[in-house]
Specification:
This protein is mostly helical. It has two domains: 2-134, MetI-like fold (Orthogonal Bundle); 137-165, no CATH class. Helices cover 73% and strands 4% of the residues. It has helices at residues 2-5, 8-43, 48-62, 66-80, 83-90, 107-133, 137-145, 150-155, and strands spanning 94-96, 101-103. The protein is elongated.
Amino acid sequence: MLEQLLEPRYLWWLWDGFLVTLAISFFTIIFSTILGFLLVIAQQSRIKLIKGIVLGYNAIFRYSPLLPQLFFWYFGIGNLLPTEFKMWLFDEPQIQLWFFTLKMPSFEFIIGFIGLTCYSSAFIAEEFRAGIAGVSVGQQQASLALGLTWWQSTDESPNDFGKNH
């Protein structure tokens, strides 16, 4: 049994799966961090509609399990796509550019990336929000009294305020 599992073709399948896992993890970390940062900026907005949309987004993606979300993205969104687009997407899509052909990732990779990015960005946005909320009101007022902007006051640490720059 073990000898059959270690045949070269299965080892290559495992290696390919490992590389796909690394790729989807890498892209998910980068894009969920960017999206989480944008979400927390939108959540700090004074416009109640934008704040409500972000709070709804966070509630949906943080409080529902990952596996049903991935099923929704794969089966739900996949069925909403136009038939021609689905045929192109499932047929190893390629985009012809000027001097070369760009091979697109598979439908499963794209859907996994979208699902994991949406799920992770909600948690990362909450971590960014907690970091911003961790700066006390007195600390914010002290930084404004020193002439720092709001962005500069979130960048400086409390120990740096007494030092000359």
